[in-house]
Every structure is written in structure tokens, then in C-alpha cells.
Write a structure and sequence with these properties.
By secondary structure, the chain is α+β, with helices and mostly antiparallel strands. The chain has two helices and five strands. The strands form two sheets. The chain has a three-stranded mixed beta sheet, covered by helices on one side. A two-stranded antiparallel ribbon has the order 2-5.
Amino acid sequence: MSRTILVRFKLEQPRAQAGSKTAPPQLDADRMLAAIKEQLTDAVQGRYGDVDVSVTLAGVNEIRVSGPWPEKANDVRTEIGALLERVLENLDTTEYLQQ
């Protein structure tokens, strides 16, 4: 049985300021997800070895793990959450703004 991680999270798009008649540039979600998946996969595989990682948008933040892990699933979810947080902190979202 292979090990897999599914990361679902909510992406907040920039909002127009009150009274503004122009909409702010929106994030290119597909490009941003691809970058997050690449960086998160590298971090997860560096920590746990061969693992399939999926990253999708959802209405809620969620991390699911399946397969055999050297630690309890809850501990793995906590570690994956910390890795995801580091990836997001280092992500320059201005690269993904659409004009």
C-alpha cells in the first residue's frame, strides 16, 4: 500500500477596497497550486521518502493521510501542516497575480 497525502485549503482572493470601482488583480490559482504542490512534495519526500502528494482548493483547510506511516496519523498531519505553512510563508503571491 502506498502512502498518500491530500492537502485541501481555501485560497483567499484579493478583495476590492470599499468604494473602489475597479477589481483588484486575482490570483492564478492553477499556477499557484502547481508551485505549492512542487515545493510541498519536495519537503514531504525529504521528510518521509516516497509519498504521493495532492493539493487542491476547497472551502475548508484539511490534510488527509493514508497508508502506512512511521508515526501516528495525527502526528503526520501536524508535521505536514507545518511543512505547508513554511511553503506558504516563502511563497511570493505577487508572481501569481493576473492583470
